[in-house]
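To close the section, here is one more complete example, presented without commentary so you can practise reading it yourself. The ligand is protoporphyrin IX containing FE.
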Amino acid sequence: MRALLISKWTKFAVFLICLIPFADLVWRIIKSDLGANPVETLQHATGDWTLRFLVFTLCITPFRKLFKLPDLIRFRRMLGLFAFFYVSLHFLTYLGPDQAFDFSGMLKDVAKRPFITVGFTAFVLLIPLAITSTAGWIRRIGGKRWQMLHRSIYFAAVFGVIHYYWLVKSDVRKPVFYGALVAILLLWRLGDWFFKRRGQAPVRVAAPHISMNS
Ligand code: HEM
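Output:
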């Protein structure tokens, strides 16, 4: 298993797999096969894939530990960057067709519609993560601070779910499903942190029991 995970071919294969949703959309654009409302189709597909890639990224740490596969870490950055890639496309499908690239109109809309406000916040939170995702940035800002900064992916995922939940009109099954996945992944981290802390607690050495009879 390890040989498979550390192979550069596996990484390349995963990269190609992550591009499939994008290739599918490009293909459907070329064939004019995006249904009655092409913009809506693009918005929904890119939104769905953003959320999926956020979940995939959040799965890496628990899977590494639960299945004892530390080399899975090699894929985390790529998955996170794909989440950013799909949210950028998602944002563009909003900024272009919805807002005609009018930034001031967009900011007004962000302030006015709560589901856009949280979606936009999630997007903004992901920007520094994408920028600082390289090894050079870890060195520059230090591992601890880098880790703290990259914890904002938790908030981005939660805001992404709220965004989805608020925009659906009636059937909330899908946002609730993603919400449950994100909740499980975040609760797992909380449990892991809690048990690690307990494990690190200084061991109390019992005072020698001095008996009058000894
Ligand atoms: C991490 C950030 C984000 C995530 C995870 C996300 C996710 C989603 C999802 C899952 C959908 C619905 C897809 C479906 O119905 O199948 C959606 C729709 C949408 N999102 Fe986002 N989104 C994010 C950021 C944004 C941003 C930054 C904007 C714009 C500023 C935006 C605007 C929209 C719009 C306009 C729709 C369609 C609403 C409708 O059909 O009425 N989203 N998004």
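Once you have examined the tokens, check your reading against these statements. DSSP finds ten helices and no strands in the chain. The pocket of protoporphyrin IX containing FE is lined by residues 40, 43-44, 47-48, 50-51, 87, 90-91, 94, 116, 119-120, 122-123, 156, 160, 163-164, 167 (CB under 6 Å).
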